[in-house]
Amino acid sequence: MTAQNGRSVTFGISGNNVAPLRLAWKLDAALFAGLVLSVAGLVTSPLAAAEPVIQSGSVNVRLAAVVEQKQLNDAVVPEAIDRLGAHAGSLKAVRLGGLSDLWRSHADPAGEFWTLTDRGPNGTVVTPDGKRRTLLEPDFVPVLVHLRLQGGFDHSRRADDSGGVQIQATEVLPLVMASGRPASGRKNDTGSGDPLLNAADAIVLENDSNGLDPEGLVRLSSGQFWLSEEYQPSLVEVSGDGQVIARFIPLGQHLPGAGCDIFDVLPAEYAFRKDNRGFESMAVSPDELTLWAAMQSPLDYPFKDAGRKTGNVRVLQFNPVARRPTAEFLYRLGSPKSQDFLSKGNPPGDGKISAMVAIGAATLLVLEQMDGGASIYEVSLEQATNTLERTMPAGESLEMIRDLSAAAIRPAGKRLLADLSPHHPRMVEDVFREYGGGGKGRSIKLEGMALIDSQHVAILNDEDFGVDSGSETGELKASPRSCLWVVKLPAALAFE
């Protein structure tokens, strides 16, 4: 069945565990026709309740568009310049990049998205204490960015620089604290990971209680934003014009002198996030009464790499009205088809949650990335065990539990929708086309995912502001691109 423009469509996961979801999608069929991942196999089995089942089909990937390479300050709204004051200059030195999530509401015009930058361009430097990460622009102010797809698509060939489609920034909203002081990309905590250095002189940068490393994004129908960030980690409530209203941090943590309200209501264990692996992704339920924020990797709790063998990642459920957590679930990295998935865990190399989108009251699409590839899973929380109030014996943690069945913990149900791994080399080539060898030997960071309609998902990569992160000086050797790929979901996301 083909959806018509403006028609209310019902879609959900085939099977008994997930109810259909009715949304009023305004589809531009001509705009997205042909820019899909064609799926040879159909996934029709329901999500397993006790033991997740995985089925897959083959896919073909087509690059849809490339983010326009321009300076951030060219798109900053004029009134925001006044609020930034002297900090406005930090945007002039930085190009549009470092995009860490992708958001689109069903009510948004076709081809329009919201995204956000992370903490700013960074590199590495070798010091007597070893390799350390640097900030190239210590005064950089993270921003929210409104993107718009310009023109149409030529469905007969891939988008490229010579005649392809570009996504342009139409609006940039710098994040400014309620006190009027701009946010920064500097660290806001003292107990997690190595300090950041100034790339200009390798001197340690002072922490900033208003520092943010934003990674996840949702936008409510009111225009208000909610963000997740990696440093503390924290959930961040933001007004429609970019003003930070409040932050929600782990219990017992502090942000002295912060320019907004601070509430330490998140589980205390979250302060032990893996270095540079805090809250990575965010989703909101269709009724906007529930937020989900996922850690990128297992916590380093109660010791470093405690979850390396299990792949147990925490997903927090949060009520934005009551402003408090309401549940927590375990998401186990890796293939549910693995024989040891429930009994031991079998996480892939550098496995992590990169992005997610809610498609129901307890159903998510999750982009899971690993060395050399990525997969999109359909995930059900409906029958998953709520671990928020679970008490663990001294010296133990949820991250350490290998046999989940023996511990009476049911993880989030997982079912594979699309395996992107066979196409990963071509996607790397799309990003690093200016590098010698087409980016051979390099990796890409897929960090944004948005639902276009009931059949199409957009995926966006973070190209680190064009900085060669493998360089000890952080210099720009070439120009990797922010690319947008469009995925056609299999028939398991049935709609009528």
Give an account of the 3D structure.
The model is unreliable at 1-57, 152-157 and 469-476 (pLDDT under 50). The chain starts with 7 loop residues before the first strand and ends with a strand. It has 496 residues and is mainly beta. It has helices at residues 29-32, 78-84, 89-92, 424-431, and strands at 8-13, 21-24, 63-67, 112-116, 122-127, 130-135, 143-149, 166-174, 176-177, 197-198, 214-219, 225-229, 234-238, 243-250, 261-266, 279-284, 291-295, 312-319, 324-332, 352-358, 363-370, 373-380, 413-419, 445-451, 456-462, 483-488, 493-495. Strands 4-7-8-3-26-25-24 form a seven-stranded mixed beta sheet, covered by helices on one side. Strands 9, 11, 12, 13, 14 and 15 form a six-stranded mixed beta sheet that branches. A four-stranded antiparallel beta sheet has the order 16-17-18-19, with no helix packed on it.
Record field, number of beta strands: 27
Shape: globular
Mind describing the biggest β-sheet? Answer: 7 strands, mixed
Quote the beta fraction.
25-35%
Q: Note the total helix count.
A: 4
Which features does this protein show?
5% helix, 4 helices, 6-stranded mixed β-sheet, mainly beta, 496 residues, 27 strands
Task: Give a brief rundown of this model.
With 496 residues, this protein is mainly beta. The chain has helices at 29-32, 78-84, 89-92, 424-431; strands spanning 8-13, 21-24, 63-67, 112-116, 122-127, 130-135, 143-149, 166-174, 176-177, 197-198, 214-219, 225-229, 234-238, 243-250, 261-266, 279-284, 291-295, 312-319, 324-332, 352-358, 363-370, 373-380, 413-419, 445-451, 456-462, 483-488, 493-495.
